[in-house]
Amino acid sequence: MAEAAVSSRRLNQTLEELGRFGYSPDGMQRLAFTPADVAGRDYAMSLMRRAGMGVRIDPGGNIIARREGSDPNLPAIAMGSHLDTVPNGGKYDGSLGVMGGIEVVQALSDANVSLRHPVEVLVFTNEEGTRFHRWLFGSRAMAGTLEPGDLTAVDDEGVLMSSRLADIQGNMDRVQRAGRQPGELAAYLELHIEQGPTLHQSGVPIGVVTGITGRWVYEADIVGVPNHAGTTPMSGRHDALVSASRLVLEVQRMASELEVCRVGTAGTIQAYPGAVNVVPGQVKVGFEFRDLEMACLAAADAEIRSVAARIAARDGVAIDINRFESTQSAPISSGMQELVAAASERAGLAHQRVPSGAGHDAQSMAGITDAAMIFVPSVDGVSHSPGEYSTPEACANGAQVLLELLLLADRRG
Ligand SMILES: [Zn+2]
């Protein structure tokens, strides 16, 4: 039986109020570092203080709210997620994990429950990475895994991220100090919407996340020969767009038919010179593969390179495959999965194991502490869209499981 219970009404009201910051009829526009993001962060900090937490901002711009525990020697148990959205995004992605974490602390305070461990609620900076193409920025800063390119990142208008970081009281010159030492956190617990259809289809209210898939991202540069579309015979062409099309179909086939890896997607394409009366001389295709098993990503990498070589030889074009991002997968330990399952049972909710196809701050945090993730259903599996929706009941279920999980983690040795 629970010692404390979250308030569904209060949780859903805060989600609703938070959803006004950056709202537009075309979806949420609360991109990192924008005035809407700043306003949303201020709102979250006011709720944190109301729940009795001390609040600070680290040099990575991450908000760290803290409630002390009864044993001063124990490391903190953290809950958290992000408040920034993609353009035309939804109001549950990230927000549920933050509002859920605050609600858990508020519920503990209301019920006068004290824990052995300190508890932290974390808001990570720029999880989506929409503007500076540097995703998971805040959680990677906290995990100490920023790369040199993160410190000098500029947006499409040439504005340095360091200047925008100052807008949210971060400091790029001191960002390394946002890193936390192994042992400083006892665990990291993240509640999130599934963003996929598995739970919606099964009707199971709680997902026990088994791991976050690794993601390898590529640009293929295909160089053929530009020429007159009217006078160049079909047999003499080196059409870069035709070769690119073969490559796109292979990315799809490798995942769907050959099952080399779980998913493969070609999402961008540019043809040059970009005129219908010119045989395309050059094409750039952006694509990615994702899988929980890094060996599958390595197999996909080898396969697409040999496929590209075959296409190049056949079509008389040059194809250069450049992998420019390699995110490792982050398996969730069986012990933490068991703890989430036990928390669901304490909340009286059915659960099932699900992998996460989307990236999350938890994958950064898994590098420095025991991480766990709880998923709740996304209606129709829609996310990163104004149609993103999780029912008030689903959100409250997730927060109650987060509360039970925190209590179980607090009692662990
Ligand atoms: Zn998210």
Structure description:
- With 413 residues, the protein is α/β, with parallel strands linked by helices.
- The protein contains twelve helices and 15 strands.
- Strands 1, 2, 3, 4, 5, 6, 13, 14 and 15 form a nine-stranded mixed beta sheet that branches.
- Helix 1 (8-18) packs across helix 12 and helix 3 (95-110) packs across helix 12.
- The chain is elongated and about 80 Å long.
- The structure holds zinc ion (ZN).
- Zinc ion is lined by residues 82, 93-94, 127, 192, 360.
Categorize the overall geometry. elongated
Rg, rounded, reads: 23 Å
- In DSSP terms, counting alpha (H) and pi (I) runs of 4 or more, how many helices? 12
Beta content: 15-25%
> How would you classify the helix and strand content by structural class?
alpha/beta
User: What are the distinct ligands in this entry?
Assistant: zinc ion
Low-confidence stretches: none
State the distance separating the first and last CA atoms: 21 Å
CATH class of the largest domain: Alpha Beta
Task: Report mean pLDDT, rounded to a whole number.
Answer: 96
> How does CATH name the architecture of the largest domain?
3-Layer(aba) Sandwich
CATH topology of the largest domain: Aminopeptidase
State the order of secondary-structure elements, H for helix, E for strand.
Answer: HHEEEHEHHHEHEEEHEEEHEEHEHEH
Helix content: 25-40%
CATH superfamily of the largest domain: Zn peptidases
* Oligomer class: single chain
Strand count: 15
Biggest beta-sheet profile? 9 strands, mixed
Number of structural units classed as domains: 2
